Here is the input.
Amino acid sequence: MARQALNVARMRMLGAEVIGVESGSRTLKDAINEAMRDWVTNVRTSHYLLGSVLGAHPYPTMVRDFQAVIGREAHAQILEAEKRLPTHLYACVGGGSNSIGLFYEFLKDADVKLVGIEAGGRGNGLGEHAARLAAHQGFTGARPGVLQGTYTYVLQNEDGQIATTHSISAGLDYPAVGPEHAWLADQRRAEYAAVSDQAALEAAQLLSRTEGIIPALESAHALAGLIERLPQFKPSDLVIMNLSGRGDKDMDTYTRMLGELA
Amino acid sequence: MTVGLTTRIAKRFAELRATRELGIVAYITAGDPTLNATRGFVLALAEAGADVVELGVPFSDPLADGPTIQRASERALKSGTTLAGVIALVRQIRESSQVPLVLFSYFNPILQMGLEKFAAAAAEAGADGVLVTDLTPEESADYRRILQGHHLDTIFLAAPTSTDNRLVKIAACSSGFLYLISRTGVTGAKDALPDDLPALLRRARSFTQLPIAVGFGISLPGHVSVLGGLADAAVVGSALVSEIEKAVSPEAAAAALRARVRALKEAARRGLSRREATP
Here is the structure.
């Protein structure tokens, strides 16, 4: 709640009741546990608005279908603007909704590379990050498992207990990845990598300075991933990056972590 | 190990039906506060008359459980409890008791052990059945095939909101008994049982020949007496876990568990028609 204080304040001003969850490890997965407990208790009079492409079927499909408008519009607009398809799509991946929303329309375009950037947090060890699909970079702990109604790659210990995770960004700080991303990774249709908290912070500062856009911490990860791969790009490449959120909600974190902002 | 082709669970429910007695299924979280303490608790429960004992395998994200069992899971995980440890506990219990034992777990720990390895180990240790809280009938084909191959009963949950079609599906997947959740919600003792419970029980009864155990919210002898004639068993969980949490020592906890179960069995046998307060 403290990490996303601005959003909490806005929700309350709009009339929502926001309940802080104190149980378990007190992060997103614990809030989801409480939300599900509330839902099964009040199932006759409530509908669960699941915020990403996670959860029991049909939520991953449903949320993807709603978010897919991003990719449909991007597909039409890039053809109009550039008369060709992009070579690369970049997006950050927490639960995976903004990324699958961008990717989905382009899945059929085999020459369009799909790149999902996860939270590399502050280290490779279990508990220091939230990278579920970046074992190739040494991020350990993710295996197929079941959490909160979904079967997908989940960060967990050997006994199947779900791991705590860390990311500077709340929206990427979750131990399971949307199952469609698990599938795209296994199919090698999309590639995934993780960037550190520090890289995301630096990317956020760069975008703010050069473009006048303060990105959400989550989106800053996508930019950091892009920046890391700059040497691999050719001048003819055309990249669409999903700037999935604004940084207003993260100003406290930016102020605290970037020190002298001036 | 099965006795002929009849499992311990089937045998116990057959005995209960013959005497028209309501069974008491006792749930506790294994490893709360330690696996060794749980061994003593299970023996105490069996001694006091529990007809089936459910051993909860602690999980980091028990989304079907209320605060009482959540805390028990946290304590059990803190003391190092694992699924393998709970299976080893079953083997130990079997050295001195034939009480029917059900492993109650979320799916992920079982999945990580491997279905075949889990089923073989659980059966060999002497477990009689398994209930996986978050495994739906639709996803259960491999699980059922493997567990049935090891003569383990597969127990599934039915809810007040389960449609008739769904009850048919659930019943078709189930063996041992059907676990009927008494109300929409998570585990946790409550003062009153839902008014629509008798109707729900009658509806469930029309879809299965299996014994039906009713759970969630049951704690008082008065609750138990309402269920006689309608359900085959009452499941008591959070009320027992609370006793363990409150007790000053494992011995005190065992004594409290014995007292609770004795009172519930007494109510089950006598079919009390008035609600009574617990001491």
About this structure: The first strand of chain A starts at residue 88 and ends at 92. The CA atoms of residues 204 and 210 of chain A lie 10 Å apart. Chain A is about 35% helix and 15% strand. The first helix of chain A runs from residue 5 to 13.
